Automatic annotation (TrEMBL):
InterPro entries: Caspase-like_dom_sf (IPR029030), Caspase-related_regulators (IPR052039), Pept_C14_caspase (IPR011600), Pept_C14_p20 (IPR001309), Pept_C14A (IPR015917), TPR-like_helical_dom_sf (IPR011990), TPR_rpt (IPR019734). Residues 341-470 form the Caspase family p20 domain. Residues 301-334 are annotated as: Disordered. The gene is ycf3_4. GO terms for biological process: proteolysis. One of its GO terms (molecular function) is cysteine-type endopeptidase activity. Keywords: Signal, TPR repeat. The lineage of its organism: Bacteria, Pseudomonadati, Pseudomonadota, Alphaproteobacteria, Hyphomicrobiales. TPR repeats lie at residues 94-127, 128-161, 162-195, 243-276. Residues 1-22 form the signal peptide. Belongs to the peptidase C14A family. This is Photosystem I assembly protein Ycf3.
Length: 579
């Protein structure tokens, strides 16, 4: 779980023991200053006390603090920060810095959160709780060495902290140390077997190890515990644990092939109240996965798939998924382990546009990249010049296959646009009509990312697309470029793999820098795809080093007019072509 922010012990040490607060407690009112008070009642009581204008200094700071706790229960982190900031102005305290840092953490502003936790540690005395919270912020930044060091300090100060063992295990899992992660999670469960989150984490580890039945068993017990009592930590939004649990069990049921139970779990995720970013991202993943399962339920039975064939022409049917050869029967754990070691890729090249500027090279680029990926062991789904229906079907078929993969690569060449901060891929039948919703005619990249979001998979997305906005007055750009028209370009994703995951991570590579146009090229391939095809199959070349070589070649070939760019949350080295 992203949010394991410990608070109650700190409150007792920093506020309840304060003489002026203890003497005034009866006057301040139990509704405002009792942690078990429902959020709305707490906020209302504290607001009325502030309105009396009878308190100042430390006493008034305490009221603002407790009102911030009420806002935190509701997930309104802007109000938490506002009230905590006022409390700090009136009378700084360790607990108040901790609470504000926790709110910044929940907003994803990790550097500011770390600064607040640093201030809390400087005020002292050193607290295992603050080390734990700062470790959470470092973990969310992907700085796992510092996170583990902080969790070590937290465990030294409080060796019975199940949360610190749980989160340190999450860091080890993210770094690929599944055995070390399992040891820490087991210790968290031993310390407090009533906590559901360590069981969810252990379920994910079992799934990564290929033991699907043990994964389902652990997460089922976590769901029972989460339903039996409220979260042990008041900083945990209600429902977030269940959302995480149902998402992870749904993924486990999918891996096992039990689609009906997976559907039920994803439906339960969508019924939950998501107030934090991780829960909202989990719901996005569940929505896509549920849609894919529902499509599969109504689709007619298919014969064994033939190897993918190249297709051309607007509206061409999507290619068949390359079939895996039949394998001898194996034990369930061995089957699951084989399933999670698969390497799959989706390659789409759209160039023959009917109503906007056609691009000659994307189909050539897609063929070249698909060939390279097959040569290094990827099972490739390939589609050329796809209309919207064919494009959606190809993508959805791929997302179903990717649930059993360890590495998934998506490559797209063609027109791409940004609208309202979201990126869209453009099918060949796109037509801009006055008064129409242009996004309805395109494919949302967020849907692909949500469908791939999983703790045990590495995702590599490569977009050789323009970075232009279709809402500008001029629809078609001039010159041999991959721009629908001049504009602001594609948006960098705000977060990568942020839903249910602190897993293997995601990398998105763009053919050009923000605000620039990716050239289609004068030859048979675009400058970016030509360079990519020369390096993607190099044995033992780590993926980010590979992209550095591609960037250098593109800059040289275009005389600096095009500079490829990437955004990564990868947690370790990834090799597309094995050593």
């Amino acid at each position: 779980m992203r949010r394991s922010i410990l608070l109650l012990t700190l409150l007792a040490a920093a506020l309840w023991a304060a003489p002026c607060f203890a003497q005034s407690r009866a006057q301040l009112g139990p509704l405002c200053t009792t942690e078990t008070t429902p959020a709305d009642q707490m906020i209302s009581a504290c607001t009325k006390i502030v309105g009396l204008k009878v308190f100042s200094g430390e006493k008034l700071a305490t009221i603002y603090f407790w009102r911030a706790v009420g806002w935190n229960k509701k997930g309104n982190y802007a109000q938490v920060i506002a009230d905590a900031t006022e409390a700090i102005r009136l009378h700084p305290g360790v607990a108040i810095y901790n609470l504000r840092g926790s709110a910044y953490y929940d907003k994803g502003e990790y550097d500011i959160a770390i600064s607040d936790f640093n201030d809390a540690l400087r005020m002292g005395p050193p607290s295992g709780i603050i080390f734990h919270n700062r470790g959470n912020a470092y973990r969310s930044k992907g700085d796992y060495a510092r996170a583990i060091a902080d969790y070590d300090a937290a465990i030294k100060a409080g060796p019975k902290s199940a949360f610190s063992y749980q989160n340190r295990g999450g860091c080890k899992q993210a770094l690929g140390d599944l055995d070390g992660a399992l040891a820490d999670i087991n210790e968290a469960i031993r310390i407090d077997p009533s906590l559901p989150q360590p069981l969810i984490n252990r379920g994910v580890i079992w799934r990564a190890k290929g033991d699907i039945d043990r994964a389902i068993s652990d997460i089922t017990e976590a769901i029972r515990l989460a339903k039996a009592k409220a979260p042990a930590n008041i900083m945990t939004p209600p429902g977030s644990v269940l959302i995480s649990a149902y998402t992870q069990r749904g993924l486990a049921y999918e891996a096992k092939g039990d689609r009906e139970r997976a559907r039920q779990d994803y439906a339960a995720v969508l019924e939950g109240q998501a107030s934090d970013a991780a829960s909202k991202a989990s719901q996005a993943t569940a929505r896509v996965r549920l849609s894919l399962l529902q499509d599969a339920a109504v689709a007619p039975p298919k014969a064994a798939a033939a190897p993918a064939r190249e297709q051309a022409g607007p509206g061409a049917a999507p290619p068949a998924q390359t079939a895996e050869p039949a394998a001898p029967a194996a034990a369930p754990a061995a089957q699951a382990q084989a399933a999670t070691s698969r390497r799959v890729a989706l390659v789409i090249g759209n160039g023959t546009y009917a109503h906007v500027k056609a691009l000659p090279n994307p189909p050539n680029d897609a063929r070249a990249i698909a060939k390279c990926l097959r040569e290094i062991g990827f099972t490739v789904s390939e589609g050329l010049d796809l209309d919207r229906d064919a494009m959606q079907k190809t993508i959805r078929d791929f997302l179903r296959e990717a649930t059993r993969a360890q590495i998934a690569v998506v490559y797209y060449a063609g027109h791409g646009v940004q609208i309202d901060g979201r990126n869209y891929l453009v099918p060949v039948d796109i037509e801009f009509k006055a008064g129409g919703r242009v996004t309805d005619a395109m494919v949302d990249m967020d849907t692909i990312m949500a469908g791939l979001d999983d703790q045990i998979r590495t995702n590599i997305l490569i977009l050789d697309a323009c970075r232009n906005n279709p809402m500008a007055p001029q629809v078609a750009s001039a010159g041999p470029s991959r721009g629908v028209e001049a504009g602001a370009g594609l948006a960098a994703p705000a977060s990568l793999g942020s839903g249910s995951t602190l897993g293997a991570g995601t990398l998105i590579a763009f053919a050009t820098a923000p605000g620039q146009v990716a050239l289609d090229g004068e030859g048979a391939n675009s400058p970016f795809s030509a360079a990519l095809s020369r390096h993607v199959g190099t044995p033992g070349l780590e993926v980010q080093q590979m992209l550095t070589r591609v960037r250098a070649e593109v800059v040289a070939a275009t005389k600096g007019k095009q500079v490829p760019w990437s955004n990564s949350s990868l947690l370790g080295e990834v090799y597309l072509a094995e050593k």
